[in-house]
Amino acid sequence: MISKRPFIATLLLAACTLSSAAYGAAPVAQIQATLAKPAVMCGRFDQTKQLNGIKKPLQSQGRFCVVKGRGILWQTLQPFPNTLRITRDSIVQMQDGRVAMKLDAQQEPVVKMINNVLFSLLAGDLSQLDSLFELDGTLRDGHWQVALKARQPALAKAIGDIGLNGSAYVEKVLMKEAGGDRTEISFSAIKTGDAALTPEEGALFD
Predict the structure, then answer these.
(1) I need a surface site. Which of 61, 85, 118, 194 has the fewest CB within 10 A?
(2) What DSSP character marks residue 190?
């Protein structure tokens, strides 16, 4: 049986990092103006997870795609292939082309909360963020940093505190969990527009 906790934690990272055009504190408008907001955005991610009490970090890399109005693909390529497909109604984990887990937003309260946050971000609606996170952001010379602290115990337990930085796009995210685990993700090779999404990736939304 697949554990839901790391699955949901990864999902939360995807939601909070790939859609961070709406994050900020005092300089919300300035940060939004700095960030590009393409309808389709794909690129590479490199993730390092440091588990408390274990010296060697866990490393993974892969590809992500954000498609406005359709959702997010979070595809881990190394060390093991794995794909998350996040839409308004459900979150699906796929392995070897088959569905390994599906969480329905109507049945899972945490999933519903995540989806509401994710799609409010894509729509530029800050009301969801203000109720779920304490935000502290700075902007200087086109580069910004944002710190997010979860208000709700369930969200804080799942994802902890988040730090983001970037310029036109999100460049790095750092997640600190309550138990001492740390996850860092770097984004690179970002492409935008319809050509950024491969036909195979587009088919995953159908």
Answers:
(1) 194
(2) E
